[in-house]
Design a protein that fits this description.
Length: 350
């Protein structure tokens, strides 16, 4: 950690752009309609209805824009949700459904600044799932279609790899952002400077616990720890010392309990107890309540048919007393190795 980080001259942050927190007002939520059967092998048939239910919930509160490129995908999305108020479908091709990771990071700024986004590079979590060329092109396609400037840092970074409090403190993980399968031996200081330049980071907190069992992202932070206000972080917690996730999550928890945000205010840490292991065909899946999604006046929380489902909702209701906290089924969804936060990418009100 280096405090304070300062943006380089001429960078987006130096010009006045910033990355708003997820709980700040959103103009729309971006999704990519699921169509890649290889992502949910043997269980794809129920995924479009899970997505449709998700869209119906979100559209009650705010606009939802869905990438549904190609005739077949557009027809399926239109049949499922095309008639809903607040839903717009875009003929933008994708390889997969994980818009958090292949979508842009939307920036906000003063009224004198033109709308802008960050187009990070994307290589499907270190080249694990080719092809990914269509997903990599999504930010540019959105920028062109929505009339936004696209800033291009020239590095690989998925949206699920970072979380922010809107004021300059960024959470990330060493296991993912420093993994050579993204950017080679780039180093912490270079990545911290890029985060300062493109999303206004003043402080970067690097979690060291590693990834969840079953995770294919090398440790996305949106499965591990999330800001819920400028000083409060909810952290995945596994109390069973015999569970493979216990020690890595305990390491993250201990680290965060001894840190501050960008103003020097000690972090308030709230634990979210993990569900029991979710197994499909003997494979451990990365089920985590930290993969919740925050929108205008609501929070969507993944549910795993587990005794800890209800306590997770209660904990997040305490964190967001002014929002409706909604549990949606995610046991089949997580067979694709992600949940609702992974599916979504918010666009802030400019």
């Amino acid at each position: 950690m280096t405090l304070p980080l300062r943006p380089s001259p001429g960078s987006p942050a130096e010009r006045g752009y910033r990355w708003p927190a997820e709980w700040e007002p959103q103009s729309r939520l971006w999704l990519s309609w699921p169509h890649n059967r290889r992502t949910w092998p043997g269980r794809f048939e129920g995924i479009p209805e899970i997505m449709a239910r998700y869209v119906r919930e979100v559209a009650q509160f705010q606009p939802v824009d869905i990438l549904a490129g190609g005739d077949d995908v557009m027809r399926e999305a239109t049949d499922a949700v095309g008639g809903l108020a607040n839903v717009t479908l875009h003929d933008i091709l994708t390889n997969d459904a994980w818009c958090r990771d292949h979508g842009p990071t939307f920036l906000a700024g003063s009224s004198s600044l033109p709308p802008a986004l960050v187009d990070w590079g994307y290589n499907a979590w270190g080249g694990k799932y080719p092809p990914y060329d269509l997903d990599d092109a999504v930010p540019q396609r959105i920028a062109e279609g929505m009339g936004r400037i696209a800033f291009t840092p020239g590095v690989i970074l998925e949206g699920g790899a970072i979380d922010g409090n809107g004021r300059g403190t960024i959470l990330t993980t060493e296991s993912c952002l420093l993994n050579p399968n993204r950017n080679g031996p780039i180093g912490k200081s270079r990545l911290e400077q890029l985060l300062a330049d493109f999303v206004g980071a003043r402080l970067v907190i690097w979690l060291t616990g590693g990834d969840l069992a079953g995770d294919d992202t090398d440790g996305h932070v949106d499965q591990l720890a999330r800001f819920v206000d400028p000083c409060t972080v909810v952290v995945a917690h596994e109390p069973d010392p015999a569970d493979i996730n216990h020690q890595p999550l305990a390491r993250n928890l201990k680290l965060l309990r001894n840190l501050t945000n960008e103003t020097g205010t000690p972090l308030r840490v709230v634990t979210l107890e993990m569900p029991r292991p979710v197994l499909v065909d003997g494979q451990r899946l990365p089920a985590s309540y930290c993969n919740f999604q925050i929108g205008n006046r609501f929070v969507i929380v993944p549910q795993f048919d587990d005794p800890n489902d209800a306590p997770a909702i209660t904990t997040l209701r305490d964190c967001f007393p002014d929002r409706r906290v909604i549990g949606l089924p995610a046991r089949d969804l997580v067979w694709g190795l992600g949940a609702y936060h992974c599916l979504s990418q918010q666009e802030a009100v400019i």
